[in-house]
Amino acid sequence: MKAPYLSKSVSYVRGSVRRRMPELFSHTAPGLTLIFAALFLMPGFLSAAPIGIMPFQSGSRTDQSVPSALITALKQPGRFEIVEQSKLDAVLDELKRGQSGLVDSETAAQIGQLVGAQYLIVGETNRTEAGLEAAYRVVHVETSLIVAADRASGKSDDVLQRLQASLLRQLDLYLGLDNPDSPYTVLLKLPEGPLKVGDTLTIKFKVISHRPSAPKRVYIQLYSINAKGVMTLIYPNRFSGFSPIEVDREYEFPSEKDDFEWELVPPTGMESIQAVVTTEPSDLFQTFTKARSTFPETGRNGHDPATYRGIQVQLNRDKRKDWKAQRVTYELQQ
Asked: What is the C-alpha to C-alpha distance for residues 301 and 133, in angstroms, rounded to an integer?
């Protein structure tokens, strides 16, 4: 189990591999006309999270078997509000007039706003002789971020059970670290397209404020979580320093000034970047000292919801009232 490999590189090599990414919020899906209203706030409790589940794409057709199983899983705990299918169907009918194929995260976020969902689940299925291949992604409507995802293949019943358990665990993990009273929203942006072992990765991040009186300088921590749950602090680091960042300004890791690049290494599978923003320094895992010379692992399991509940408990104990958390999830392929 390796942490993300951070290799030194001269600047012209970095320039040849870095992909220029579009500005945040620059996409509008064809076939939909939207007037963007006030941003939604995430709920403080799991029961207040309206979730919409789209029909999954299966080639040129749609498949309801996996969405139906996921709806069943979400209804059992009684913690989630499921958006009525009729609302989704009405929006999908309009969407089909303007586009076809898979629904990307920006389009999903727009659909979510139209139907009153805070999260929208999209995915794909493929029926094979061996059984079923299926994948889902959970899109956070406010930011268009993919905050949870998984993929499974095998016998149909096994796949459905795995994806049901995975979805409940990841929602528990994500919603378990939340501060609905925060004046901030965290935006994270990864390159578009599939990410493979050996690729170099740059993440853009930005903190925006919804309250004029909120501090204009904040501290942000970024943790890389690999497919095995190994959680590594990648920002701040000895290159970036440990000073606060400016609100409403975009940053990136690695930055243009850094003489290293972030190379993706095995294991393959679902990986995440977890961000935590505070108005005062908070060394959540006692890793800042090591971070002045390396990129330290936290020693915590990044797939365990208890890790994130522990972060929230510590932030509340330290009286960090305006903190905010966010994450983005992606699949690392071979």
From this structure: 27
H or E element at residue 311: helix 305-317
Do 195 and 96 share a structural domain?
Answer: no
- Which alpha helices (H) appear in 76-207, and where do they start and end? 85-96, 105-115, 156-175
Q: How many residues does the chain have?
A: 334
Q: Is 237 exposed, middle or buried (0-12, 13-18, 19+ CB in 10 A)?
A: buried
Of 183, 133, 161, 140, the closest CA to residue 52 belongs to 140
User: How confident is the model over 101-143, as pLDDT tens digits?
Assistant: 557 788 888 888 888 899 999 999 999 888 999 999 999 999 9
Count of other CB atoms within 10 angstroms of residue 319: 7
Confirm whether pTM is higher than 0.70: yes
Q: What is the CATH number of the domain that holds 311?
A: 2.60.40.3880
In the block, which residue shows the tokens 């930005």? 206
Domain that holds residue 273: 5-23+181-333
| 139 and 50 both lie in a single domain | yes
* Cis preceding-peptide flag for 266 (omega within 30 of 0): no
